[in-house]
Design brief:
- This protein is α/β, with parallel strands linked by helices and about 400 residues long.
- It has three domains: about 210 residues, Rossmann fold, CATH 3.40.50.300; about 80 residues; about 70 residues, Arc Repressor Mutant, subunit A.
- It is about 50% helix and about 10% strand.
- The strands form three sheets. The protein has a five-stranded parallel beta sheet, sandwiched between helices.
- Strand 9 and strand 10 form a beta hairpin.
- Helix 4 packs antiparallel against helix 5 and helix 10 packs across helix 11.
- The radius of gyration is 23 Å and the shape is globular.
- The mean pLDDT is about 90.
């Protein structure tokens, strides 16, 4: 069929044509937005799960829901080559510039001056111009060089400005497990203070399954955040992720074709989009058949092997690949560090640096002490398909 009309969109963080199976967290977020607007507090949201399950998509949906209500929003990705200080500062500039106007209230002027000082805390040569004279306004002081102090001042003043505008402030951090320890401690402390004092701010974090542990280790009260495990789609939700986008283009899936793609994808949203896209392109008629799905599944698997999985595999050194092969014997469920070491004929302690490197590269994570698992579903199967010389 016409690839231009193809409604499926595989890709990191891309919004699918049908965002299904996520009604509960989306509803909870809407309730939280309304609570903040009414002067009540709400717990920070924590979305966690494997790669490819749609955490970034959901986080972006949260941001859009806040932006549609006129909120000041900032969505950043940790570990993307910038510090949290710089990422938040640069992301907040645009929404603040949109709010700057001659009739700006006192709290907004204070927030703008504080934002200028925060900018100076990481870029002494950079200058922001909001088109207003904020120099005479109180505020500022977010340039001490101490992250928690500066960020607390910035969030407090922006939340006050948002309240003056009748809205709120939303701060969303993706890949939050990659925040530096100082950043984790600071953001948890500020989120806690905001809830205690009912600032008009709402936080949301997304990351790997290790994120709840990482946050709790940073600050014990992070255990009281609102945690939502994001998993693969099941039952009708997985089917609707395929059939609803096609229906919008007046294309029908045969039940047997849906069943095959859901099984081949194991219900993972990223894989559903990839297999759906390739099945659509393989189909000739406005009814997607089982044979179309077989071709699409084979093409989708090849695409994932050559891109999604290959990009991660090629980042590993030969010794790291040997370790990953030993993990793959246990499938995707996770492996004991001791078992892996025994398979490779060495003591577990000798693999400490290698294991740390694999975690830093985002290839594995530690769901619990002494256990390692792949960060992406299906990685064990991909490794099993690779020649031993690869």
């Amino acid at each position: 069929m016409d690839p231009v009309r193809n409604p499926y969109s595989p890709g990191a963080g891309r919004q699918p044509a049908a965002l299904v199976g996520r009604d509960a967290p989306r509803s909870s977020w809407r309730v939280a937005l309304e609570r903040i607007e009414r002067g009540r507090s709400s717990q920070p949201f924590v979305l966690y799960g494997l790669r490819g399950v749609g955490k970034t998509v959901l986080l972006s949906n949260f941001r859009r829901a806040a932006a549609e209500r006129g909120w000041i929003t900032a969505q950043v990705e940790a570990g993307a080559g910038k510090s949290l200080r710089e990422s938040l500062g640069e992301t907040l500039h645009a929404p603040l510039a949109d709010l700057a106007r001659p009739s700006a209230g006192r709290r907004l002027l204070i927030a703008l001056r504080t934002a200028l000082s925060f900018k100076a805390s990481y870029d002494a040569n950079g200058i922001w111009n909001f088109g207003l004279e904020a120099a005479s306004a109180p505020g500022g002081g977010a340039d001490t060089g101490v992250l928690e102090t500066d960020l607390r001042k910035l969030v407090h003043d922006l939340a006050a400005a948002a309240e003056e505008e009748g809205v709120g402030l939303a701060i969303l951090i993706d890949e939050a497990q990659d925040l530096a320890e100082e950043e984790l401690v600071a953001i948890c402390a500020i989120a806690h203070a905001a809830a205690q004092d009912e600032w008009r701010v709402l936080f949301a974090f997304a990351g790997l399954p290790s994120l709840p542990r990482v946050l709790a280790e940073a600050k014990s009260y992070a255990e009281r955040f609102l945690y939502e495990r994001i998993e693969e789609l099941h039952g009708d939700a997985a089917s609707e992720a395929l059939t609803d986008p096609a229906a919008s283009e007046n294309v029908r899936w045969e039940p047997s074709a849906v069943k095959l793609i859901v099984e081949e994808s194991a219900g993972y949203p990223y894989f559903l989009q990839q297999f759906g896209q390739d099945t659509w392109n393989a189909a000739l008629e406005a009814a997607i058949t089982y044979d179309d799905a077989r071709v699409g599944a084979a093409a989708g698997r090849a695409t994932l092997d050559n891109g999604f999985f290959r990009a991660r595999w090629d980042r590993a050194t030969p010794s790291e690949k040997n370790y990953l092969r030993a993990m793959a014997d246990d499938g995707d469920a996770g492996s004991s560090s001791g078992t892996i070491a025994a398979r490779l004929g060495r003591k577990p302690a000798s693999f400490g640096p290698l294991r740390a490197n694999l975690i830093a590269k985002g290839l594995v994570y530690a769901p619990e002490h002494g256990i390692v698992a792949f960060t992406v579903p299906g990685m064990a199967g991909f490794i099993a398909r690779q020649p031993s010389t690869d």
